[in-house]
Amino acid sequence: MSENQPKDPGGYTEHKELSADQDSLPFAVITVSDTRTEETDKSGKLIRDMLTEKGHRIARRRIVKDDPDAMKEELEACLSDPDIRIIISNGGSGVARRDGTFEVVTSFLEKTLSGFGEIFRMLSYDDIGAGAIMSRATAGIARGKVVFAIPGSSGAVRLAMEKLILEEAGHIYWEITK
User: Fold this and answer.
1) Alpha helix locations (H) across the chain?
2) Residue at 159 is within a domain
3) Terminal Cα-to-Cα distance of the chain (whole angstroms)
4) Which CATH number characterizes residue 70's domain?
5) DSSP character for 176?
6) What is the mean pLDDT of the segment spanning 69-86?
7) Where in the sequence is the domain holding 165, given as residue range(s)?
8) Average pLDDT over residues 149-160
9) Does 7 map to a domain?
10) Mean pLDDT over the full length of the chain
């Protein structure tokens, strides 16, 4: 085992293998932006491409304004859709005046996955330095679905998807439905 490989306390790998049938799930992808369009939404496209490359299905795809009411309406629609299992929003998660994704998403969460935001910021620190503290990336469970809120930059999306979401989303969903 290399020094960068995680240890396996309590048979985590074996436990995770039990959730292997969750490798193909329907996702919703929400881009929060005042300026992006379907043609210019590189981060939303990156999320979609990375999910489909891993065999997942995009059940819903929307771009909403960086406005709490618009985000609430879209998140409510995703949470009410019986076909969606996992929701990923990108954008609006910083500290700018109009960034309200964190407040909206956390208002829906019944359980938070604090480690997601903590690890995301730790990994971001390696890439961008102290600016990582301005990310309010978060994740949790709402109405039996897994919800992730990540920054909208392509670099942050790639980091979150490669290092965290693609690694654990199916396992998290399995855990909340077993």
Assistant:
1) 12-17, 42-53, 68-80, 101-108, 114-128, 154-160, 166-177
2) yes
3) 30
4) 3.40.980.10
5) H
6) 98
7) 24-177
8) 97
9) no
10) 92
Domain count, the chain: 1
Residue type, 89: S
Task: Answer yes or no: are the C-beta atoms of 92 and 156 closer than 8 Å.
Answer: no
Q: List CB contacts of 25: < 8 A, sequence separation 6 or more.
A: 56, 57, 85, 86, 169, 170, 173
Residue with tokens 């998403």: 105
Establish if 15 belongs to a structural domain: no
Q: Minimal CA–CA distance to 94: which of 131, 62, 65, 125?
A: 131
Output phi, psi for 142, to 5 deg.
-140, 125
Q: Shortest CA distance to 105 belongs to which of 127, 138, 154?
A: 138
Please give the biggest Cα pair distance in the chain: 48
Whether residue 106 lies inside any domain: the answer is yes
Residues with Cβ within 8 Å of residue 147, at least 6 apart in sequence: 75, 86, 87, 89, 105, 108, 109, 139, 140, 141
- Residue for token digits 């994704």? 101
Q: What is the mean pLDDT of residues 124-143?
A: 97
